[in-house]
């Protein structure tokens, strides 16, 4: 079977690889749709040891497919249409026992290999974070469950309530997923890009999804006294960000970071795209065959003209 193999920054090749046999608890799927993602584009441009591990390695982590074969003890059967996350918590470590599954000490290595004809879903993910898709849910929407689960984690951490004014900083795919999930909660959402002017009124809550120092600072500046800021877009380790102490102390704002997702967010994400697909379909701006996956990755990374790309649907 054919798969995208990451060799080094800027060097991803489609290669013929040995097909896998599912062992106990594992599920082998035919990939019906994989999605490009800014994290993959970043990994393509400059490497990403956390996401990819040592090269050469399989690539792509947002997927949906049809079960080809399942090992023993699995609740899926050949022909089932499924979508899943790229990790699953162990439910045994300190972080999991505290209920902080996104910080699970066994989260890594993350699953990669969605840019391929077939994907072997390992046992721990198949047991917790792989889900059947209802009839009529197109695979590309199922594949959105991973980034949407991250967004739902961000929304949960913000504490956003129906009727509140929420600012989202960043107009990329995650900014839009956050905005759609907040709108589904009944919030009044304003999405701001880096060139948009600040609104006259401060927000009840602000979610930063631009992944830039200036956006982190702007998020803190735009929240009302007593409001909450969620820092969603990651910055490289070692980055320092300064905030006005007055805002944090005298105006008692809450500032918190979120990373990744828990199984409840993955389930909720599948539920959302099943019930109301329209706002999510709008993110699937491009479509490519597996052989051409480098093109949308280079567009997302800004190596080629972006052409308004949010997510490309990759089909074998
Ligand atoms: Zn992603
Ligand atoms: Zn754990």
Textual characterization of the structure:
The protein is α/β, with parallel strands linked by helices and 316 residues long. The chain has 2 domains: 2-144 and 283-315, Quinone Oxidoreductase, Chain A, domain 1; 150-257, 3-Layer(aba) Sandwich (Rossmann fold), CATH 3.40.50. It contains 12 helices and 15 strands. The strands form 3 sheets. Strands 3, 5, 6, 7, 8, 14 and 15 form a 7-stranded mixed beta sheet that branches. A 5-stranded parallel beta sheet has the order 10-9-11-12-13, sandwiched between helices. The chain has a 3-stranded antiparallel beta sheet with strand order 2-1-4, with no helix packed on it. β12, α9 and β13 form a beta-alpha-beta unit. α1 packs across α12, α6 (145-158) crosses α7 and α6 (145-158) crosses α10 (263-275). The N and C termini lie close together (10 Å). The structure holds zinc ion (2 copies). One zinc ion (ZN) is lined by residues 89-90, 92-93, 95-96, 104-106.
Largest sheet: 7 strands, mixed
Termini gap = 10 Å
Q: What structural category do the secondary elements indicate?
A: alpha/beta
Estimate the helix proportion, in percent. 25-40%
Count of individual beta strands: 15
Mean pLDDT: 96
- Per CATH, the superfamily of the largest domain is Medium-chain alcohol dehydrogenases, catalytic domain
Query: What best-fitting shape do the alpha-carbon axes yield?
Result: globular
Total discrete domains: 2
Query: Can you list the ligands bound to this structure?
Result: zinc ion
């Amino acid at each position: 079977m054919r798969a995208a193999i990451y060799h080094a920054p800027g060097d991803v090749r489609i290669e013929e690889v040995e097909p896998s046999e599912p062992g106990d608890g594992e599920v082998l799927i035919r990939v019906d749709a994989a999605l490009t993602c800014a994290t993959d584009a970043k990994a393509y441009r400059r490497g990403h040891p956390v996401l990819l591990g040592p090269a050469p390695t399989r690539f792509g982590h947002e997927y949906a497919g049809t079960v080809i074969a399942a090992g023993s003890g699995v609740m899926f059967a050949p022909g089932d249409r499924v979508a899943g996350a790229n990790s699953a918590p162990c439910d045994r470590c300190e972080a999991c026992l505290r209920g902080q599954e996104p910080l699970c000490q066994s989260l890594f290595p993350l699953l990669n290999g969605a840019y391929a004809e077939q994907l072997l879903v390992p046992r721990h993910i198949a047991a917790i974070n792989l889900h059947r898709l209802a009839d009529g849910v197109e695979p590309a929407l199922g594949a959105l469950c991973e980034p949407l689960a991250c967004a739902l984690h961000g929304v949960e951490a913000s504490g956003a309530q129906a009727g509140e004014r929420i600012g989202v900083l960043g107009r990329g795919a995650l900014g839009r997923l956050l905005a759609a999930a907040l709108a589904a909660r009944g919030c009044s959402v304003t999405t701001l890009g880096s060139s948009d002017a600040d609104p006259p009124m401060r927000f009840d809550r602000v979610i930063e999804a631009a992944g830039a120092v200036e956006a982190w600072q702007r998020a803190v500046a735009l929240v009302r006294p007593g409001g909450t800021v969620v820092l969603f877009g990651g910055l490289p380790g070692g980055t320092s960000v300064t905030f006005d102490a007055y805002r944090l102390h005298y105006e008692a704002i809450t500032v918190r970071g979120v990373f990744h997702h828990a199984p409840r967010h993955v389930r909720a994400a599948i539920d959302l795209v099943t019930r109301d697909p329209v706002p999510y379909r709008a993110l699937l701006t491009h479509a490519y065959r597996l052989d051409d996956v480098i093109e949308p990755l280079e567009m997302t990374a800004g190596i080629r003209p972006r052409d308004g790309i949010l997510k490309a649907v990759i089909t074998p």
